[in-house]
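User: Hi! I'm working on a homework problem where we have to compare a predicted structure to a textbook description. Could you give me the structure for the chain below?
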Amino acid sequence: MSKQSAGNHKDESRYCGLYLHIPFCVRKCPYCSFFSIAGKSGLYNRYTQAVAVQLQGFSRLEWTKSRVIDTIFFGGGTPSVLPVSLLTLMLDQCRQGFAMKNGLEISIEVNPATVNLGDLRQLFQAGFNRLSIGAQSLSDRDLLVLGRPHTAADVHDAVDMGRKAGFSTISLDLMYGLPGQTVSDWQEVLLQALRLEPDHLSIYELTVEPGTIFAELQKLGKLNLPEEDRVLEIMDLTRTEVIKMGFHRYEISNYALPGKECRHNINYWRNGSYIGSGAGAVSCLSGCRKKAVEDVEAFCRMVESGLEPWTGKEKLDPPGRFRETVIMGLRMTAGVSFSELQDRFGIDLPSYYGSMLSGLKDQGLVIQDHDRLRLSPRGLLVANSVMAELV
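Assistant: Happy to help. Predicted structure tokens:
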């Protein structure tokens, strides 16, 4: 790999995303490795106030004053466990503290067990316009295995209520490769999901993460996961079925109808800037990444005391940021642009990676198409291995 140094570059954009982490859940799912806590409703108001204070601090930064928010995402955890009044209050605080782009995308994640039509109507009227439903499956057997607090019928109801509330963009999260799941099991789940006519699908293979209940079950030999060949068959089936319904794959795990891509997540994959508020949230301001403490009460105490709640900060040099942008950008089927990377970092991708890139092309894992580099269909299947080469 060339050690070419970056010259003048403009790793900047006028726009950035805003993420609010709501760590509260009905209960902790056995596969989940994200920072979340079950119950603790007594902390809802205090946490909301702490987030408001942190948002005010972000809004006073000189860096922020020259930026415009173009996407807002309420994620978790399960944001919909909070009272609607607190969710709308936080959204109002975002509007008051930051410059907002017209027509911005405002997403909220919900659990089918924690929504009703009245709440969804209030959320839509408050300005939320993209509903991300954490279905995970439409099989009651799968949902029981996953420890989800809802049924398949609840998912159907949530989609129906979302449409009645006014949401024009509804996304479903689904997981495959579940314990005991067959290809036909998955096909039935996927076809049910497509019959609900969502606008966007996030479809992930179950990954057993350290520190989860599933990881402990796997160590004990009590987690009957599908064989690799079955998982590959599921992936092929997924692509075939969703394309038939007019979806296009724009990222490794994400499919959308035209114009319904998640703009907030695209900013992540392009390695853009974003503000993250709340316990466990990550911010990335022009390449300077900060992560807040993964402890709700500690987060509240620190913010209330005027302390920064960060557990760590990282600032990559331009070559490091360049590599990170290439790796993240290759998650998208459109890949990365040589000229955009050159303009942004002052680094020429083919020269930087040299023989390594040639080797990946010779193996048929990446495709160079004029100004762009993208993963091939084969490369998408082993994306993590390809990206490990480019770190």
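For your comparison, note the following. The chain has 17 helices and 17 strands. The CA atoms of residues 140 and 159 lie 17 Å apart. Good luck with the assignment!
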